[in-house]
Every structure is written in structure tokens, then in C-alpha cells.
């Protein structure tokens, strides 16, 4: 007899609220909806990367067609975000290939394409900057720079008494989000005269603030609606602000609904990607391999404008010593300007780049001293009460030793390592290896962002039938939020989660509970909802309409955050992970087969175990693929890979069954003890794979991805030496 599900508890895995319509195809995405009178839009883009616009020749337009540009903007011609450096429409200058200059609107897409072809722009050229790596030096002007840890002079003084200074540079690549639904927004005037943008997005209030700024409108004159969103992974955090402004400007003039949908080629060419990075470690060591200090430099290719790069860099720097207690650490970080397409948010938000470099560096030190890498890394693990690199504290129990012990036992680690060593000696072509990564992820906005900037508000509404509606701005983009948030509220109210309604966010109806980013939604917003539900339960009157509003409450026991010095508690809590990967490397072709993945996580307490395991499967796959499969390159600011088949993300045939394991470690300020999970699952895949390939081949790699060509190149260099 099957186990009876408790539909009032978060302990049971339940049927996802949107599973049926997603499985049978009845869920309509924005581009699926036919609408009478709908106009279509296409962006006309710069063909040059660094130039002044001397003149524009526009064709005569057929009736019902429009060209919208900078001259039509009533407010500021900047996308309101961190800084004002990204124009809604280029005006006078262009800074990357593909920068939007005009939006062409009309009834027929073929006619729109013809109008686009007829526009002629005369440019006065400047010398563009494409080579990111040549600018990875602290001696030039950067868009953003930060320092944290001890003064750099202190870490350099430690080098003077070191037996050895291990110096390495690591390079990590671009990464395409490959969300199934491309960027899509619709602009229109609603029945109350509000300029409205509906779209596939993560952060409705980000888009609202951007549209208000561009159109010089007040809060009650702008409305933003999230449509069903087919994946995002950070790619729909800030980018919808740009295209949302563009269709909003057009809709405010034309007064008709306007749909802007990218095809896959346009989406891959001109949207934000994971920042390419150069990460340098200078590690001071004694004669036994003991770490005396580290000097770390992290460089990100920001592209042509800053966007979210500053906060992505902050997290990368904070993750640059990961789960390790290292003395005398000095970290410097820089966002480099180039005339490349701007880069932005991606799952992990800077942590994957620095973690990939750190884990490889720790492995290389261990092997230099003939120490097992996992044993070496365990020697430096932080514990409860250890200081963080920013002078904060790890306040909660750290379960990494238990997690490592368990994964070694499941893998038969020592025995398998010995077996693979013998196997590799006897097999001239196929080599097997095991690699491990240890990692963490801070939950929520960095520093005091939740208190000082976001200031989340949630609302619960109960109707006369005693059904409860969740009103928050956070979105389900495939991660299961419609289900998990309903479970949190249902458990607090002691009612069936199916009695909880969670509509797609509409800023006309929901308060600003903040963006769906930074592994904050379950832990931060879920906790506020839990408190709201408990208040509603206390005042519950059956048959009456009731409304409860609740706000974010900052934990004042944390060490205050200094935004300028980057000191204090960067995050209220951390989630933890251990990944172990087994690979086979074909020495003749350079091809890598991933044979086994074991993924262990402490995310506090799972709200729904099946939903979480889905996050694990997706995150680990994405992370491992970034390490060896997904190759994205640019030449003179233009992407080589322009289709999914060009890019080559993993299929089900490329990744084995992922063995996932969850460790309960409830966080007192999370709903039912939950912490963030979505980004954590990405971070460990690539470094574990990297370690495994080096274990198999005996080679040392400093650049991702480990494509067959790169593997053969390094193996060839190794033979020559």
C-alpha cells in the first residue's frame, strides 16, 4: 500500500502545481498567445563595436509601421539598474556589436525585416577593446574594483619567509544560459491606462523601476506582469529591464500591444552571459606544504557596461577561499571594460569562477607535496565559529566532515583510487580518475542588501471560502516555487497546500518582495511568508475575508556589514556541498566520459525533496557541462556559437544518473529550517570534473572548458616536457 501524503506538511514530496499543463503542453507562454491587433517588434542593432553615430538614414515607412529610438524617450535614456551606463537606445555612440539603436514595430514580420535592411547608419570608428586577458592588470582603470581580507602588503610580507610561493593563473569561459524560452516581452496600455509590460522575467519590480525611469512615469502609471517563464538561470534578472523599456516606450506612443521575441540566434548573440574570468593565486607555503598565506586577484570581463558585474564580482571574491580557513588572505577584484556584449547574472553569480580556480589550486598544491588532494583540503576546512574572509562568522554547524566521510564510503574512495592507478598503468588509451569538490554558497543578498535595498514585503489574502492567495513578486521560472511556497504557507496554516493559490506576479496586485535571485527566495521570502501565515492562523475567522501583510526583519545579531570595506557578515547563512565525479578519458581523442556523479548537500531542510532533487540534477549537469562541453568563443566582439547545436549543451546521454544525498541541518531563520539551494548545486560540478580529469591523465589544466582539443593540447605539451 502506498504511503499517504500529508498535504499540510513540507515533509512530503507532492505533485507540482503546474505539472499537468507543462507536461501536456496546455500552458501558454507569451509567444503562444494570439491577440487581435498585436504588433511585432524587432531591434535594429549596431554593426560596430566602438563608434560615434554620424548619421542615420531611415526609409519611408508604410502605414502602421514605426521606428522608435532615443528621441522618443521621455525620461532618462538609461536602463535603471546599478549605474546609469546602459542606454535604452544608443544615442550618438555605440560600444558593442549588437547594441540596440532602434525598435521597428509593425504588423508583418517580413516587412519589419525589410525596413531593418533599409536603415543605413554612418559611423565614425574608434579603436575597440576586445582582448579581455590583455587588460587583466591592476594598473589600468577598471569599471569596478574591490579589496577584501588583509592588506596586500601583509600577504606579500608572508611570501618573504615562505619556503615556496605557488603561482597559478586560471581562466574560466563564457556560458550561455540555454533557457528553453528565449527573451520575450509584450508592451501595451491596460484598461486603466497604465503602461504595461508582460514578460518572461525573474524580477518584475526591477523592470518596473526601469520603465518608470525611462518614461518619467509614477508608480501607479506602470504595471509589470510575469508571464509563464521557460527557464532563466539569471539570464532574465536584469536583461528584461532593457527590452521591457524598449517595448514600453513603443507602446506608450503607438497605443497598441507590441510583442518582442528573440529568436535563438539573437538570444545567443546579444544577451548577457556568465562572465569570463581570470583568477590568479599566489600561495605562500612552508617546506611541508602548509599554507602560510594567499594573494588572490580576480578579473571579470564586464563587457561594454557594468550591469550587475559589481555584485557578481563581490560574491566571487567572497568565495575565493571557499570552505577553507586560510591565514593572511588578501583578495583584489576587478571588472574590466571591453567592447564585448555585456555580461551579467548566471546561476552561482561569480562563485563558480573563483571556486573552480580555488579547488584546482588546492589540488595542485597537494600533488606538488605528494598528498592526496581530498586529505589536503580536509586539513583546512572551516568549522562552526570560524571567521569568514570578510570578518564575519560561520554561525551554524558545518557538516562537511560527515559528508566527505560518507561520499568516500559510498565510492570506496581509497580502494578505487588504487584500482584506477593500476588500471591506468596497464591501459595505454583509456584512463580513469576520481575528483572531488568542496564548496559553499552564501544565502541571500550580499551584505545588508536585504535590509537597506530590498526591504521585502509579502501579503496573504483569505477569501470567504477560506482559500488563501499568496501575493509576492517572486517568480516560478521552473524551479518549483508555485509548489514550495504553497507548502510553506499550507504547513504554517495547517491546511492542504492545494488550498493555497499563487498566481503569477502582477505589480498591480503584489507588493515588492524582491527579486528571484541569490538563493534568497525560499530562505528569505519563504520565512516572511511563514510568519505571515502564522499571524493569519492566529486571527483566522472562517468565512471572512482577511489580509495579512508582513515585512522583512533583519537579524541584528549579525556582524554589521560595511559596504565600502566589504567587512562583516556577508550572508546570514551558508549552504554546503560535496561533489565526487568519476571519469574516463580517451588519451587518443581527448574525449571525456563522465561515469558517475555523487552530489551531497546541506541546504538546511528540504521544503520538497523531489523538487530539490530536480534542482540538483539540473544544477550539477549545468556545472559539469560548463567544465568540459560548453564552449563559447568570440572574435572581434562577435559570438562564434549562434545556435544551440553550435554550442552543444549536454543531453541526457552525456550525464550519468546523479546520486544525490541531503543532510538535514535546519537553519533557525529559514522556513521549516530551509536554506538556499538553487545556485549551490551548480558550483561543485566543474571543479570535481577538473580534478577527476587531472587524476586520470596526470596532466595539469589551467583553462576551462576541457574540450577534447584542449585536453590533447595539454597532453601534447606534457609529452614534450
TrEMBL record:
Gene3D superfamilies: Aldehyde oxidase/xanthine dehydrogenase, a/b hammerhead, Aldehyde oxidase/xanthine dehydrogenase, molybdopterin binding domain. It holds the Pfam family Ald_Xan_dh_C. The gene is pucD. InterPro entries: Ald_Oxase/Xan_DH_a/b, Ald_Oxase/Xan_DH_a/b_sf, Ald_Oxase/xanthine_DH-like, AldOxase/xan_DH_MoCoBD1, AldOxase/xan_DH_MoCoBD2, AldOxase/xan_DH_Mopterin-bd_sf. The keyword Oxidoreductase applies. Its EC number is 1.17.1.4. GO terms for molecular function: iron ion binding; xanthine dehydrogenase activity. Residues 24-127 form the Aldehyde oxidase/xanthine dehydrogenase a/b hammerhead domain. This is Xanthine dehydrogenase, molybdenum-binding subunit. SUPFAM superfamilies: CO dehydrogenase molybdoprotein N-domain-like, Molybdenum cofactor-binding domain. It is an enzyme of class 1 (oxidoreductase). Keywords: Oxidoreductase. The keyword Disulfide bond does not apply.
Amino acid at each position: 500500500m502506498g504511503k499517504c501524503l500529508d498535504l499540510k506538511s513540507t515533509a512530503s514530496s507532492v505533485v507540482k502545481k503546474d505539472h499537468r499543463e507543462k507536461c501536456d503542453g496546455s500552458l501558454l507562454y507569451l509567444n503562444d498567445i494570439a491577440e487581435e491587433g498585436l504588433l511585432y517588434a524587432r531591434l535594429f542593432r549596431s554593426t560596430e563595436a566602438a563608434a560615434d553615430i554620424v548619421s542615420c538614414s531611415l526609409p519611408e515607412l508604410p502605414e502602421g509601421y514605426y521606428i522608435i529610438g532615443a528621441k522618443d524617450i521621455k525620461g532618462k535614456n538609461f536602463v535603471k539598474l546599478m549605474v546609469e551606463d546602459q542606454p535604452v537606445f544608443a544615442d550618438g555612440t555605440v560600444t558593442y556589436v549588437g547594441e540596440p539603436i532602434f525598435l521597428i514595430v509593425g504588423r508583418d514580420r517580413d516587412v519589419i525585416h525589410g525596413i531593418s535592411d533599409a536603415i543605413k547608419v554612418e559611423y565614425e570608428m574608434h579603436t575597440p577593446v576586445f582582448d579581455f586577458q590583455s587588460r587583466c592588470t591592476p594598473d589600468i582603470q577598471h569599471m569596478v574594483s574591490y579589496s577584501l581580507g588583509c592588506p596586500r602588503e601583509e600577504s606579500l610580507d608572508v611570501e618573504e619567509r615562505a619556503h615556496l610561493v605557488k603561482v597559478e593563473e586560471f581562466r574560466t569561459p563564457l556560458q550561455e544560459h540555454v533557457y528553453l524560452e528565449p527573451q520575450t516581452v509584450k508592451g501595451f496600455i491596460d484598461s486603466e491606462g497604465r503602461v504595461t509590460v508582460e514578460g518572461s522575467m525573474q524580477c518584475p519590480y526591477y523592470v518596473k523601476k526601469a520603465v518608470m525611469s525611462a518614461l518619467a512615469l509614477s508608480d501607479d502609471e506602470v504595471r509589470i506582469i510575469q508571464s509563464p517563464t521557460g527557464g532563466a538561470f539569471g539570464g532574465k534578472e536584469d536583461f528584461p529591464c532593457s527590452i521591457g523599456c524598449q517595448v514600453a516606450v513603443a507602446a506608450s506612443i503607438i497605443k497598441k500591444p507590441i510583442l518582442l521575441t528573440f529568436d535563438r540566434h539573437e538570444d545567443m548573440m546579444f544577451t548577457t552571459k556568465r562572465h569570463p574570468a581570470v583568477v590568479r593565486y599566489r600561495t605562500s607555503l612552508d617546506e611541508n606544504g602548509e599554507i602560510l598565506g594567499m594573494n588572490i586577484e580576480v578579473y571579470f570581463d564586464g563587457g561594454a557596461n557594468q550591469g550587475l558585474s559589481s555584485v557578481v564580482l563581490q560574491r566571487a571574491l567572497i568565495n575565493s577561499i571557499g570552505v577553507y580557513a586560510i591565514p593572511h588572505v588578501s583578495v583584489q577584484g576587478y571588472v574590466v571594460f571591453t567592447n564585448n556584449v555585456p555580461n551579467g547574472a548566471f546561476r552561482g553569480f561569480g562563485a563558480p569562477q573563483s571556486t573552480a580556480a580555488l579547488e584546482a589550486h588546492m589540488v595542485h598544491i597537494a600533488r606538488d607535496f605528494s598528498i592526496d588532494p581530498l586529505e589536503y583540503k580536509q586539513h583546512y576546512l572551516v568549522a562552526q565559529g570560524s571567521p569568514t574572509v570578510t570578518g564575519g562568522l560561520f554561525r551554524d554547524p558545518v557538516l562537511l566532515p560527515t559528508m566527505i566521510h560518507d561520499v568516500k564510503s559510498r565510492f570506496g574512495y581509497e580502494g578505487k583510487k588504487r584500482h584506477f592507478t593500476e588500471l591506468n598503468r596497464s591501459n595505454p588509451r583509456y584512463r580513469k580518475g576520481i575528483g572531488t569538490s568542496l564548496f559553499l554558497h552564501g544565502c541571500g543578498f550580499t551584505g545588508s542588501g536585504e535590509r537597506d535595498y530590498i526591504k521585502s514585503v509579502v501579503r496573504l489574502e483569505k477569501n470567504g471560502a477560506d482559500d488563501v492567495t499568496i501575493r509576492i513578486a517572486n517568480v516560478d521560472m521552473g524551479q518549483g516555487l508555485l509548489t514550495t511556497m504553497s507548502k510553506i504557507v499550507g504547513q504554517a496554516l495547517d491546511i492542504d497546500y492545494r488550498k493555497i493559490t499563487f498566481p503569477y506576479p502582477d505589480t498591480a496586485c503584489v507588493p515588492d518582495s524582491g527579486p528571484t535571485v541569490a538563493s534568497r527566495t525560499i530562505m528569505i521570502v519563504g520565512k516572511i511568508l511563514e510568519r505571515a501565515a502564522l499571524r493569519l492562523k492566529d486571527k483566522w475567522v472562517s468565512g471572512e475575508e482577511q489580509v495579512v501583510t508582513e515585512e522583512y526583519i533583519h537579524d541584528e545579531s549579525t556582524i554589521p556589514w560595511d559596504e565600502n570595506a566589504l567587512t562583516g557578515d556577508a550572508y546570514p547563512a551558508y549552504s554546503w556541498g560535496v561533489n565526487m565525479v568519476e571519469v574516463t578519458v580517451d588519451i587518443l581523442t581527448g574525449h571525456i566520459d563522465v561515469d558517475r556523479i555523487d552530489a551531497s548537500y546541506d541546504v538546511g531542510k528540504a521544503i520538497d525533496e523531489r523538487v530539490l532533487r530536480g534542482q540538483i540534477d539540473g544544477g550539477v549537469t549545468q556545472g559539469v557541462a560548463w567544465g568540459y562541453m560548453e564552449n563559447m568563443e568570440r572574435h572581434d566582439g562577435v559570438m562564434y556559437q549562434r545556435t544551440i547545436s553550435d554550442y552543444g549543451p549536454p543531453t541526457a546521454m552525456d550525464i550519468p544518473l546523479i546520486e544525490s544525498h541531503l543532510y538535514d541541518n535546519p537553519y533557525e531563520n529559514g522556513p521549516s529550517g530551509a536554506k538556499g539551494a538553487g545556485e549551490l548545486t551548480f558550483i561543485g560540478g566543474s571543479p570535481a570534473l577538473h580534478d577527476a580529469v587531472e587524476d586520470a591523465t596526470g596532466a595539469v589544466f589551467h583553462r576551462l572548458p576541457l574540450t577534447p582539443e584542449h585536453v590533447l593540447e595539454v597532453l601534447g605539451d606534457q609529452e614534450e616536457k
